[in-house]
Amino acid sequence: MKTIRNKFLLAALVGSLASCIDLEEKPQGVLAPEGLFKSTKDVQTAINGAYGLIASEPLYGRNFVTALMLRDDMADIGDRTTAAARQQTNDFNMDASNGLVASFWPRWYKVISTVNSAIKGAEDLKLAPEQANPTIAEARFVRAFSYFHLVQSFGAIPYIETFVSDPESVKTIGKSSEEEVYAKLIADLEFAKQWLPDQQPADVRTRPTKGSAATCLASVYLTRGDYQKAYTESKWVIDNKDKFAYRLESDFQDLFIATKADQIKETIFAVDFIGQKVGPESTNDDLMGAMTGIRGTDQNGWSVAVPTLKVYQTWDARDYRKRVSFEDSMRIGGVLRPYTAFPTAARPHIAKFARYPGNANSEGRYSDHNYFCFRYAEVLLTAAEALAEVNGAPNAEAIGYINQVRARARNWAGRQTTFPADVALGMTKDAFINLVLEERRLELAFEFKRWYDIKRRKLGDVVFKGANSLEPHTNFDASRDYLMPHLSTEMAINPNLTQNPGY
């Protein structure tokens, strides 16, 4: 977490390793692994640089995670003067020149190229497996994590798993099918689960562990509809939670207070930002507080990603998670005013990023947040959904996982309430699966998960066109919109990069 103080500076070094895979730009040269890596410490330096590239404006600092939020049915455009690329992403009219894709597509491949270089460097050291494999496992986890996002967003993609010594060869690489990409990333995660430690030194949770690898595997299998394996992996994490020091935090609000990030035991893997510091290539530039904050008067936010009014109104006010997730009032001229008085978008805004950003500027930018990639509550929800699918109906175990999450939601900062009530036995499978998906929507609201749930369950026509739609988009096209477009500039460089259907 905050112990990796120079990670964004390392990104400048490893950026030269990644230049050959930035498919949008002409390669500028390569720093070969054999000339850089002399020890496992050098390999770790490169992996830390990959973390810096993830904790950057193109990925978890703004563009990629904003695209995931705008794509779902929980966050809509608040200020319609914002960039066209964001509006296109939200409104399901993206094209092959979308600026968000132009930002995050090459950055993910820079992350991948960096860890590929680290893996090659570690292998070239010719160390014993017990010396080399834990470091290689960390790099392979980062590679799998990156490809998992890419394959969910684009479907078939170029899959590169070796260090690229000839940049020109990248221009002719074809797509690997979704099945091939998933098989490769599952192999990476299985290796990571075998060789990563139970806990990282000082219990740093922005580096992966065996629990992180198993959790990611559970998410992959859930996405693929392999419910038995999704249950097996999530149950393994649950059974070993004490070994990994995982637990639900007692107060839901604590999860989103940046100054508490390093002490959160619910974290399984997170992306770390360091307050008021910024490095090369937009590393460590976190803008999510500003993007989601209230624009105007005293708040200094931008009102880009703002929930629709129906998202707020349909969320039961007895649920503490609603209070934590929304900012529904602000001081104007020293007077507390309701959201109807908000200057730009007169509806409640997202509070998870803007309320407690820690050491940040007045917009909430350059925050201290650690953004959850996986947390323990999600493991419980994954296990509940997968187990119900395996059994054909929810049993006491599956219901118990949901009730653990709900029990935490009843704690209003130390004051115990009765809502949401425990789920009782006797539900049908379909009713329970719908309940789990709804629980995920509320528990993980605005944490970049909802779009993937919509996509994997093929809910687009229901959530965007149905009578109870929270954010109607009548132009949603299931034959096109579950995938994002490839860039026309990328296809001009590489004729084997064919466009996704409908674009």
From TrEMBL:
Gene3D superfamilies: 1.25.40.390
Major site of localization recorded for this protein: membrane
Pfam families in alphabetical order: SusD-like_3, SusD_RagB
One cellular-component annotation, GO: cell outer membrane
UniProt subcellular location: Cell outer membrane
Domain spans labelled SusD-like N-terminal: 41-222
Keywords, ordered alphabetically: Cell outer membrane, Membrane, Signal
UniProt keyword Signal, yes or no: yes
Record's keyword annotation contains Signal: yes
Domain RagB/SusD: 348-503
Entry similarity comment: Belongs to the SusD family.
Name assigned to this protein: RagB/SusD family nutrient uptake outer membrane protein
